[in-house]
Amino acid sequence: MQEKFVGRHIIAMDELSREEIEYILEISREMEANRDNYSDLLRGVIVASLFFEPSTRTRMSFESAAHRLGASVISTTGVKFSSLYKGETLYDTAKMVSAYADVIVMRHPEQGAAHALAKGADKPILNAGDGPGDHPTQTLLDLYTIQKNKGTLDGLKVGFVGDLKYGRTVHSLSTALRYFGGEQYFVSPPQLAMPDKYLSQLDDSGIPYHIAEQLDDVLPELDVLYVTRVQKERFDDEEEYERLKHFYVIDQATLTKAKPDMAIMHPLPRVGEIKEEVDSLPNAIYFEQAKNGVPVRMALLALVTGKWGGQSVS
Ligand code: CP
Prior knowledge:
- This protein is α/β, with parallel strands linked by helices.
- 34% of the residues lie in helices and 14% in strands.
- The strands form two sheets. Strands 7-6-5-8-9 form a five-stranded parallel β-sheet, covered by helices on one side.
- Helix 4 (113-120) links the parallel strand 3 (103-108) and strand 4 (125-130).
- Helix 1 (18-33) packs across helix 10.
- The radius of gyration is 19 Å and the shape is globular.
- The mean pLDDT is 95.
């Protein structure tokens, strides 16, 4: 299987099969269990880290993953500090960065930017989030976290709450979960509803889904609750953002109707939609989720650079 990943772009979740996802998760488990065995795996490899939109977790966990594997990192953060600001195209940027690095990680505020970059790239692109589009490496760490917590990915009832319109993590995770059966629940105000494109995908895959405005209506059903931030940066109308930003606030009282072992997840950052009092619950796993970004991104870097040689994994 590893040869399928060498030099490959990881841009959108619908470009990965179930078997490929499971393979990435298997290597991620190995990276977590035996991290020190791989501290030289990417020695001599250069990772370009291009973040044209704010990030803490994705950028730092990718860079941490690179360092854990012995790679070097070159980076630029913010459009203003790259030649995109002078009008350079993503195509030309890709040509140049391909000359300086062996793998390119990019976050960009525009949907489709990673595909645009890939057109000019001679090296593999890892999409670290393109506007409201996709965030495949987040989804892989989300799946890793769910599997670790629930023991399986199959047949789960997963509820998404918050900004389902602009939330790329929701779009990517819903897409990936199609392979694993179960049911999906979409809880949002109408203004932030899950786009039809993703609902049609579920229809085509025969995955049942439910749409609700009140979290209470679906909470008792759920095995996983995936909470999201309302994406201020995607709104044209600031007043509408202010009206919607705290449409849902999860506190301990909210959760009384939930199954006691319902996993509470969030891609983070949070801006008030989960109260800190929830953090102490054993099923609040969002910080563990963020931590899992390192082994998952180690696996991805090793695979696309061709440095993962099919070592036997435990
Ligand atoms: N989850 C996530 O993408 O976080 P950052 O924006 O901090 O990278």
